[in-house]
Amino acid sequence: MSRLARLWERLILLLRSVRFRITLWFTFILALILAAFSAFVYYNQTRDIRGEAQFRLQSKMAAIELTMRITPNGLLVPQGILQDTDVLVFLGPDGKVIASYGPIPAEEAAQLATRALEENGERGNSSSGFVSWLEAVASPKTTYIFVEVPITNLSGEIGLLALGSPLDPYGLYRRLLFTLLAGSLLTLVIALVGGFWLADRAMRPVKTITQTAHTISETDLSRRLNMKSKDELGQLAGTFDAMLARLQAAFERQRQFVADASHELRTPLTIVNLETSRALASRRSADEYEHALTVIRSENDFMSGLVNDLLMLARMDAGQTVMERAEVDLSDVAVETVERLAPLASRNGVILETGDLPETYVLGDRQYLVQMVSNLVENGIKYTTGSDKRVQIETGADDAQAWVRVSDNGPGIAPEHLPHLFERFYRVDKARTHQPGDAPGSESSGGSGLGLAIVEWIARSHGGEVHVESTLGAGTTFEVRFKANKE
Q1: Which of 176, 205, 221, 343 has the smallest set of CB atoms within 10 Å of its CB?
Q2: At what angle are helices 232-281 and 286-318 packed, to 10 degrees?
Q3: How far apart are CA 339 and CA 355, in angstroms?
Q4: E strands within 139-204?
């Protein structure tokens, strides 16, 4: 790419940048303010200059009227009253020039005076003692302001006296206009440069955020901006850092989830492969074949349950789960759960019993609520030990909240494990893993570690919360609270 093309590309990027647009809008608004201010100043100053010129001219006319003398040869005016730039014309009743004074030729001065007289007559001021003002451009181009008064004596009107003076003899109009234009342009240039510098300085954190975002990839989300400013851009950077932290945690959970799922599936697949290879290595007895098939079926059931749980969690995370919400009685959910899991509890030597089950209505999906309670009960059946193994389920309502509670008298859970119970694939006892030939849900089966994660998701999707209390050696209680649906 040539240097000209690179410069053109940089210019295009500059024109499209936010800092340039901010500077342009700032300069445009300032230009409007300066234009309005300059027009106001110019109008007031020109009005003042005009007023001063009229006052000077009227004062001169008053002095001339008091001191002049009319002679057969013309008009005599004392020295010191008129200046070299002033024009004085004395017209007779017939409009002819009787006397003239000043740098303008008599004929041109008479024409200007006549125009003033005509305009004065059009305004209805032709009576004796009128004063008429007229701005006219004389040769050379100088704007004159005239005042005219009639000259009378005892016999009546004998003529018209017109006195003219340059409106702006010192060039104040031009200097004021030049000063306002030059000052405004200089101010706009300074504002443009200073505004661009300030905008660039203000947008520097955004450039830092952009550069950091470009350097961040899926495999490296540990970068942070760590901006200490407390302004809006500092808040934006803090929000960006928080978003990166959430993304990093989400990616780490995803990687951990995939690794854990692969590990959970690898074990039963390895067992199936080993059992199949051992059965096919040589002829076996019927009992040995039956044992191998039993192990393979058990591992297949375990993998099917794991895959179903993974599929459910994936659908939940993707928002593809459709819930049909209606009034559901939690006591009916508890009774249905007990009926479904009674054979499993009996097979594991666990007494599954119910406590108080008053009618308690919530708004939710019955199928998912049954699955939630079933997962809690299955969890209690799996991990309850001892000679008198019991799992109890009860429901109730208080303070506009409905709840379902599942308790067991198992060994309990250590406090350090409680915050992690609802993490996917988390197990309190790492040694209690799935063993070859374990039947799904059996006492020896350690489960997939997804049941409580599904419980928490179903509870949250129904606007509820899961609470757990556990005492070592005394048992564990899971309680899910919902907003009660009152009739």
Answers
A1: 343
A2: 160
A3: 15
A4: 142-153, 156-166
Predicted confidence (pLDDT) per residue in 38-67, tens digit? 999 999 998 888 888 888 888 888 888 888
Nearest to 449 by CA among 370, 386, 378: 378
Q: If residue 20 lies in a helix (H) or strand (E), which one and from where to where?
A: helix 18-67
pLDDT exceeds cutoff 80 at 388: yes
Residues 422, 407: Cα–Cα separation, whole Å = 17
Report the amino acid identity of residue 29: I
Q: Of all helices (H) and strands (E), which one includes residue 392? A: strand 390-398
Question: CA-CA distance, 187 to 11, in Å (whole number)?
Answer: 24
Q: Which of 111, 110, 145 is closest to 131 using CA atoms?
A: 145
| Count, residues in the chain | 487
DSSP state of 217: B
CA distances from 448 to 148, 391, 451 (A): 112, 21, 7
168 DSSP 8-state letter: S
Hey, how many other C-beta atoms are within 10 angstroms of the C-beta on 13? Answer: 10
Taking the C-alpha atoms of 105, 108, 112 and 118 in order, what is their torsion angle to the nearest 10 degrees? 130
Say how far apart CA 105 and CA 107 lie, in whole Å.
6
Distance CA 78, CA 66 (A): 10
Q: Which residues have C-beta within 8 Å of that of residue 458, sequence separation ≥ 6?
A: 368, 369, 371, 372
- Give 102's DSSP letter: S
Q: What pTM was computed for the model?
A: 0.50
Phi, psi angles (nearest 5°) of residue 250: -65, -45
Structural domains for the chain:
3-46+173-202 (no CATH), 69-168 (3.30.450), 210-322 (1.10.287.130), 323-483 (3.30.565.10)
pLDDT digits (tens, 9 = 90+) for 151-204: 776 566 677 788 888 888 778 888 999 999 999 999 999 988 888 888 888 777
Report helix, strand or coil for 157.
Answer: strand
∠ Cα 24 25 29 (to 5°) = 120
d(CA 115, CA 449): 108
Stated as kind and residue range, the H or E segment containing 407 is strand 401-408
